[in-house]
Amino acid sequence: MFYFTEKKHFSSKALKTYKKISPTIQIKKDNVKVLVVRLGYKINKDFLKKFKKLKFIISNTTGLDHIDKKFCQNKNIKILSLNNVKSKIKNIYSTADLTIGLLISLVRKINLSNKYVTKNKKFERYKFISHDLRNLTLGIIGYGRLGKRIEKYTKSFGMNTLKYDTKNKNINIKKFIRKSDIIVITASSYDGREILTKEHLKFLKKNSYIVNTSRFFSVDENEIVKKLKSGLLSGYATDSIEGEYDKNLYRKNKFIKLSNKYNIIITPHLGGFTYESLNKTEEIMANFFYKNFKNKV
């Protein structure tokens, strides 16, 4: 009945809920009706073809770019995600926590200085002089659950904040970019649409920073590289990069190649990857499925 692509650290409470529907977990792929996924696998056409009787995919995520939605639609496979239960996740802030960690590390050059000290075995403070966060202007793209939490955190640092909602056409994004010392992107961009385009990035403030905890396609990655090389952009941190499911990722990705030379931080999709957030969202999705679909498998 059920198949879990990543069962490690899976919520025991969620598993108990699923076992109320079927005591058999992780059966042969030919008999699977419900696929429970995280972000460790690209759930593409080739992957899905192995599950001949599949009816549901359950993903405890808001983004769904890891799933071939067109294939699922053609095969009448229903995709269930945290988008179906948004009211239940309003107090889950792990991605906001990560965003703040990346922001501080970029501005204070924590990642750069750590790599330098451990590689060169030298303490050279003057290479890594930085700025106070106080009085810097933070531009938040995506002022929803996460954006509001990020603003709350950064207000405590004494930072100024600007907000840009991608659905609000009354805000001038060029002026927003020009005024922002640091831009964080938490907005939903799950249709492959860029939020910060090549045209937008022309208006970056000199020595500014960008933290992207949305998706890699939310920005023009090639243009980000150019801005880093030109010195206009002082740092870029991202929780998602192009080709993250590619076996040759470390040979191909532009940011990995440049990360020892520039102030670049890459994390492997850690936004919601805490024990607490994983367990909470898995339990929410298990209860949602049990309540609404237990008799449809």
Task: Characterize the structure shown.
α1 (12-21) packs parallel to α12 (275-293) and α4 crosses α6. The strands form 2 sheets. This protein has a 6-stranded parallel sheet with strand order 6-5-7-8-9-10, sandwiched between helices. A 4-stranded parallel sheet has the order 1-2-3-4. The chain is elongated, with a radius of gyration of 21 Å. It is 35% helix and 14% strand. It is α/β, with parallel strands linked by helices and 297 residues long. It has helices spanning 12-21, 45-48, 69-74, 94-107, 110-120, 145-155, 173-179, 198-201, 221-230, 249-252, 254-258, 275-293, and strands at residues 2-4, 34-37, 56-59, 78-81, 137-141, 160-164, 182-185, 208-212, 233-238, 264-266.
Summarize it.
With 297 residues, the chain is an alpha/beta fold. It has twelve helices and ten strands.
Features:
297 residues; alpha/beta; 4-stranded parallel beta sheet; 35% helix; 14% strand
